[in-house]
Amino acid sequence: MKKNNFIKTLSILSALFFALMNTSCEESLDGIKINDNELTLTVSSSDLVLQELKQNENLTFNWTTGTNQGTSASISYKLQIDKADNNFANALEYDLGSNKFSQSISVKNLNYILLNTFGISPGVTQEFEAKVIATVAGSETEPQVSTVDFSLTPYLPVTTTLFLVGDASPNGWDIANAIEMTPSTSNPGVFVYQGSLSTGSFKLPVSRDGCWCQDFYTRDATDATKIVHNIAGSGDDLKWEITQGGQYKVTVNLFDLTISIEAVSAPPFSNIYIVGDASSSGWNIDSPQAFTQSSSNPFIFTYEAHLSAGSFKILAGSTGNWCGEWYRPLTDGQALTLTDVEQNSGCNPDNKWTVSSSEAGRYKITLNTANNTISIQKVNLYIIGDGGPNGWNIGTPSPMTYSNGVYTFTGQLNVGEFKISKFKGDWCDGDWINAATANQSISDGNYIVTHKCDGPDNKWKVQTSGTHTISINLDTQLITIN
Q1: Distance between CA 398 and CA 409 in Å, rounded?
Q2: Each residue of 21-34: pLDDT tens digit?
């Protein structure tokens, strides 16, 4: 009887096992069927007029999976974009690999591509065609193709740099040393200057070009809160007047053509220092290393250098007094990623930031004494260009190796050109290390630093492909390329 029960139980378990196997096979077959449809490409807008105020919005391409010919093989996708009727001869191409069924391009990047890659004039509508190509791995069949038509109209972007010049400004009418205004990171088209203004007048050039025939933003004849874009120095040369010297905040919005000039109080301290064994200052209270005060906003101080494993705090005002004025974290050992900071005096509570051995590296510290916030960001360097390992990939490039104050890359350099960024994301997001001259030989390590898209956009030129080592020491301003 027990034997029969055992056999009956075994039969039931066997039946359940085969049922599960059949279910698994059916799910696998269903998975194959999902990839057994016609490849179809669509675009989120068939007639898009780009607007700079909406530069963070996207144009998105979506496509169906296509078919893998009844196999379980993966399908890889490639997206091409070109002017209509050009047979994709000069197409912009995205090699997307497998398991990706959409590609988005921000309005800002798309406008840059239209103006600089396709050479389309602002305000001119251009017909385009996009094509997605699906290739089944290991298959000898022809790739699947789907196309879609659409049109795009680019805009003329407002300037990415703005300056303040005039006898009211700290540098007077010396346009070559005009005060650079700070672009807002959250509001495109907005620029801010915060600092001293004297009795006198000023206007706003778009560059430090010595020619006074360049573009200026000047005062509206009927409303001092409005600005006028004088192209090539044309129009009435009206300026804003400062009747009483002091500290001011000047905010300019190039999209709605407005300006605000507000009197503000002076920053609480004119000198800021780093103190601690995490910095090269060490625990030196008498002559610690100083932060740099921003010329456009005197409330902001920056410090860039190597931070070792250890701790640090920030001294304000006078040196030599351990119980003086400090900027310290809210808690002892506060994470470097947090932005909170407290200004206090005395010896306690003596909170410090702690840098672990794994966090050691070169950092840029930005302290805002107006709102008591701090940014502590690690500095990476990236080789950008078809002569380097990342190509023209500014979104997700590979960082150079950093050790003991020196950034290093060893690997293949290709025939082409390259420059070096201190950021990733978008072309105008940060600082560049450019060659000192255009088409500079890789045997020449001289360089300049440029900010955002304010050139000159000089690059190193690789004449022959091969393995090279690039070493960069930002403290000694020395680059060697062997």
Answers
A1: 10
A2: 443 333 333 334 44
